[in-house]
Amino acid sequence: MNSYDRALLFKLGFALIRRFALIPMSLKPYILEETNEKFLEKAKALINETKVGRSYLYESAKQELILCRKNLKDFLVIKEDFFNRLSSGFVDNYFDGVSTTIGFSPFDLLEAICNKINSEMEGAVEVGKAFSLDASKFIVAAYLIFEGDISRIMKALVDEAVAAYIIPQLDVLSAQVRAERMGLYTNLRISK
What we know:
This protein is mainly alpha-helical. It has one domain. Helices cover about 60% and strands about 0% of the residues. It is built from ten helices and two strands; from the N terminus they run ααααββαααααα. It has a two-stranded antiparallel ribbon with strand order 1-2. Helix 7 (about 105-120) runs parallel beside helix 9 (about 155-165). The chain is globular, with a radius of gyration of 18 Å.
């Protein structure tokens, strides 16, 4: 989606934004300033806190991404080369290596973030599996597009995936937060 279309969506409201993934178009992904050690420490703590076991988001995302109609050269991942790399297990080996190197999978982190939001906002909002699955597909697609080792930008990719797919789901809270700040409906507090 280009920036003009995105501007139109902002004019139409957050209801539409929640239904479209807004991905900033840039040639190179940004790198977050936080040190890797600090990021890894916080990510592992969140995964342990939410007691996320091995996430199956990658397997679910892969099942969806390898859909194709070969006879029509129609691949969900756009290119046949991407399809071949994904279906051959090459991408599996990469993400297994990332998981071994840093001690967790980026998909475990995505699931932990969703679980944390769901536990903190219980009764007010729930981030369903579809959104974490879309965020997972974003990370897999980024690996295919950027061709190669994306471990140095992994935290930025997780950040972008959360910002594009998960955070917009929290927009439903804005009216409740505003009312809470004004002192209205004090019996229906959403912040802890």
